[in-house]
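Human:
Focus on the backbone:
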Amino acid sequence: QAVVDFERLGEHAAAFQGHDVGFCCLGTTRAKAGADGFIRVDRDYVAQAAELARAGGCKHFVLQSSRGANAQSRFLYLRVKGEVENLVQAVGFDHCTIFRPAVLLCKRQESRPMEWIAQKFLGAVAWVFPTAYSVPVEMVARAMVACVLQPGKEKVKVLENRAIHELGK
């Protein structure tokens, strides 16, 4: 494990050397970092990490994005997620797998009351419609590993929430 300063990511290029696969689940919230901070973390840091990984020999990059990601969206969150998807694809990996999960079901150390309420509600909905609105983070992790162990022939593969559930079983 290498600890890096994302504000000086270029100084940590050695940490990105010699890896065949890169996994990126980096992100923050607008509430926590402000709009500029959100863009810096969710787009700029991720894109720079992808570039360093590719320069270091990474062949398959796996990116966690979001359901509804769209570089043309009027909503900041979805627009930034769409922009970073485009930037990562442009890096030129042999394989790039983009995960677009719905609401992530997980326990957090920090307090996010509205997210907690949504998770409780969606957790209950998941009993009836398990792949519709949410996905447990453990399932996303299993699906990410599976996509690397069973790579397809596609250069870029986008997995929506239902496909994440199927691959993560």
Observations:
- The mean pLDDT is 90.
